[in-house]
UniProtKB/TrEMBL annotation:
Domain Histidine kinase: residue ranges: 37-261
UniProt cross-references to PANTHER family, sorted A to Z: BACTERIOPHYTOCHROME, TWO-COMPONENT HISTIDINE KINASE
Presence of keyword Secreted: no
Catalytic activity entry: ATP + protein L-histidine = ADP + protein N-phospho-L-histidine
Keywords linked to the UniProt accession: Kinase, Phosphoprotein, Transferase
EC number(s) on file: 2.7.13.3
UniProt name for this protein: histidine kinase
GO MF annotation: an example: protein kinase activator activity
A Gene Ontology BP annotation from the UniProt entry: osmosensory signaling via phosphorelay pathway
Amino acid sequence: MKVAGADMTPEQLRAELARSQQQVADMAAAQEEFLRAVSHDLRAPLRHVTSYGTLVREVLGDLPPEVARGAEVQEALGFLATMDQSARRMGLMIDGLQALVRASRAPLRLQPVPLADAMAQARATLAPAKAGRAVEWRVDADLPTLWADPVLLQELLVQLLGNALKFTRPVAQPCITVRADAAPAGSVAFTLQDNGVGFDPARAGTLFGVFQRLHRETEFDGVGTGLALCRAIAQRHGATVTATAAPGAGCTVRVAWPVAALAAEAA
């Protein structure tokens, strides 16, 4: 069997490799430009929807009291509330797309980051989400040091810990455990486990997709971009993120991170 490129000179192979790399770069740039345009261009009509909805609500509020209390006006106000809620959700989806673009294209500034310190910072950031709740934290003292961009790593941890806090909300005694995990040579790993509501493992394949949700919006907030962002950040570093769970039995997220040399090569 004749192998493609077998008759090419080294110069031709290098030129072909350069063309392939340029094609990949062009596709990535086109995707980034598309997402940026979508995120930017959708803002204006979205602002109109929310602004004019407010104006309509004010007009209805100026009606005589006996009219404003009528069934038709109250029904219209209900429609406006649904429209406003949907518009705000769409705004959050656009925010999620923009965060994905930034995470995928931002320059990586790799440096040693002690995971314990990064975890403490993420917990401090999420303190308002924990307010009024007695959450038990079990964090290993011997967490590894990661070779990572500290800003992107912080985004990843805030998303993962934020999910753990969110999905343990219905639990009487919420507990979140972070510990180092065994990993093959050339990498380190850690797991983040909660005792929250979990999810159907049959749907785990969609978990890290954009706008994918495993729970109803009425149960838990969010638009389904957080874990997609985590995956994008991990991939930038040559790392992987996986999750296992069962309904009512919590969720365990495992992050495997390459050591310094491999992380720098992936970047």
